Inverse folding.
């Protein structure tokens, strides 16, 4: 199993840990998986390609008992979510080795206050979209205190246009929820955000949607694997 894939999974582990703490959700940590359990989502991250039978049994029990929406991210494609009543989709995990990027063509600023975080959350919720979360529930203000976590807002013509979240860990950066509001799409907003967050000379990882693949390809991201995402 490639070092790049393990790097991506470790970064996602840091994100899940930070989100669980900021949201006040239960965090279940096992060698084979990490689970963030709270309303409106049980999110499980498979951490290794060979989870122990006890870990798989506990994961299955969490899913069976869940009263919320369930998402299981399995970059190693070792979990049988179908047997748990879940449906699979596949998304590419991508890695970009450090190389220079131009400065962003639009204004991109970090979130520094709870009001900034709320604005980033609104853009991500509306642009991605994220559903089922109350205001402050998807990206809580507590993320400002999370080590390695940063939230970024892009403006176009002075208006909020796009946003993303990044996690710095293991001398790499993970990019999450890169979103552009519908009125600002195809105007270079996503590229500006990436030019801003890729300025640090470290590898970068992300999980791509089909819509984002052309942009990520153009910036030098390469597919490491196609992760299996199970959901109900």
């Amino acid at each position: 199993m490639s070092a790049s894939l393990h790097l991506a999974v470790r970064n996602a582990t840091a994100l899940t840990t930070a989100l669980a703490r900021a949201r006040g959700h239960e965090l279940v940590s096992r060698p084979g998986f990490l689970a963030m359990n709270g309303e409106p989502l049980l999110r499980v991250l498979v951490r290794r390609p060979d989870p122990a039978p006890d870990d798989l049994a506990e994961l299955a029990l969490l899913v069976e008992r869940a009263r919320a929406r369930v998402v299981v991210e399995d970059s190693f494609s070792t979990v049988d979510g179908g047997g748990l009543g879940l449906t699979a989709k596949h998304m590419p995990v991508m890695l970009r080795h450090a190389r220079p990027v131009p400065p962003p063509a639009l204004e991109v600023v970090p979130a520094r206050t709870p009001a900034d975080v709320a604005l980033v959350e609104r853009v991500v919720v509306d642009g991605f979209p994220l559903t089922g979360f109350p205001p402050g529930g998807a990206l809580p203000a507590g993320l400002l205190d999370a080590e390695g976590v940063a939230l970024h807002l892009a403006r176009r013509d002075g208006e909020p246009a796009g946003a993303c979240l990044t996690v710095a860990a293991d001398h790499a950066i993970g990019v999450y929820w890169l979103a552009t509001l519908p009125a600002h799409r195809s105007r270079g907003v996503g590229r500006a955000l990436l030019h801003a967050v890729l300025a640090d000379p470290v590898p970068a990882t992300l999980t791509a949607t089909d819509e984002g693949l052309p942009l990520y390809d153009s910036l030098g991201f390469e597919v490491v694997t196609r992760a299996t995402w199970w959901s109900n």
